């Protein structure tokens, strides 16, 4: 996917930075056997095209249950979905963090579009 709306690109950069930082400190990237699956998909909702970002960690070190909301949770479930007019949800499970972000294209203007050919490093 190629993000074409600058506001969406900025907010998605914050999203990936927050997720990667936490995965490196506490999650799957901090463990030798850890893994990560990131995927994108589109779907129709209310006659509009929406984009879904899914971040799933696997084999992260065990953590105790978290009950407090921190900056990262507020960012991923509050500010980022607000900025994109979408929804975001983080769940910390036995294998690591699971995050899902959904947001629509803005006012009929594509905020993303499929890339014609993947980059050589993809």
TrEMBL record:
It catalyses: ATP + protein L-histidine = ADP + protein N-phospho-L-histidine. Its EC number is 2.7.13.3. Keywords: ATP-binding, Kinase, Nucleotide-binding, Phosphoprotein, Transferase. It is an enzyme of class 2 (transferase). This is histidine kinase. It comes from Bradyrhizobium denitrificans.
């Amino acid at each position: 996917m190629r993000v074409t709306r600058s506001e969406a690109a900025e907010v998605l950069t914050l999203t990936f930075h927050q997720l990667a930082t936490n995965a490196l400190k506490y999650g799957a990237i901090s463990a030798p056997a850890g893994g990560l699956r990131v995927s994108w998909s589109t779907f129709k909702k209310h006659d509009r095209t929406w984009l879904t970002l899914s971040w799933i960690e696997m084999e992260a070190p065990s953590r105790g249950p978290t009950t407090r909301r921190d900056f990262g949770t507020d960012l991923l479930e509050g500010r980022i979905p607000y900025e994109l007019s979408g929804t975001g949800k983080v769940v910390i499970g036995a294998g690591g963090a699971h995050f899902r972000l959904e947001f629509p294209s803005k006012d009929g203007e594509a905020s993303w579009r499929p890339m014609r050919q993947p980059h050589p490093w993809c």
